[in-house]
Amino acid sequence: MTKQLLPNTDNYIQALNASARLLRANRPGEAIEMLEPLHTQHPHDPDIAINLGGALILQRKWDRAVQVLLPAARQDMNNAMLWINLAAAYLGSLETAGPKQQQQAISAYKQALRANPKAPNVHYNLGLIYKEQGNLTQAAALFQRALEINPKDKDAQGWLDRLSELIVAAAQAGTIDTPPPADKSE
C-alpha cells in the first residue's frame, strides 16, 4: 500500500520536486510512475496535475492528460499553467489536430489569458493555431502580442515577418481585405 502524502509535507514536496527533475531530464515515464499515486490521493491538486499532465503530454497521451488536467483546472480557474497544459493536451499535435481539438485548445488558452494576460507563450501558441486555420491576420496579431510580452521571441518575430509578407501580397492581389483590428481578449 502506498503511503499517503499530504500536500505541503516534506514527502509531498520532495515527490513534486523529484517529478519536476525527471521532466526536465526528459524522463516522463518515471515521472508518471511517481505522480500517479499522488494524483489518485489528490485529484484536484494543481501542482500534481500540472506535472502529471505535462509528463503525459510528453508521452503523447493527450486524452489521459485531459482527464488529469480538466478537473484541476475547473477547481482552480485562475491557474494559467493548468489551462496552458490543458490547451496543449486538447490540441495534441497541431499538424493532425482537427477543428474540434483546435477550438478546445483555443478556449483553454483564452482561459489561461483571463487568469494571466501575460502568460508565457500563449499568444504564440494561439497564433500557430490561427495560422494553421488560415486566419493570417488574427495569427499575425497574436504573434505581435507575443512580441510585446517577450521582445526576444525570435520564433514569434519570424512568423510575424512571414505572415506580414503574405498579408501584404494577398492585399495587393485583392484576395484579402484590410486586416480587422486584433481581438484584444487574446
What would you say this structure looks like, in words?
Helix 1 (10-24) runs antiparallel to helix 2 (28-41), helix 6 runs antiparallel to helix 7 (122-133) and helix 7 runs antiparallel to helix 8. The protein is built from nine helices and no strands. The radius of gyration is 19 Å and the shape is elongated. It has 186 residues and is mostly helical. Helix content is 70%, strand content 0%. Residues 1-5 have low confidence and may be disordered. The chain folds into two domains: 1-91, Serine Threonine Protein Phosphatase 5, Tetratricopeptide repeat; 120-186, Alpha Horseshoe (Serine Threonine Protein Phosphatase 5, Tetratricopeptide repeat), CATH 1.25.40.
Question: What keyword list fits this structure?
Answer:
9 helices; Serine Threonine Protein Phosphatase 5, Tetratricopeptide repeat; 186 residues; mainly alpha; 2 domains; disordered N terminus
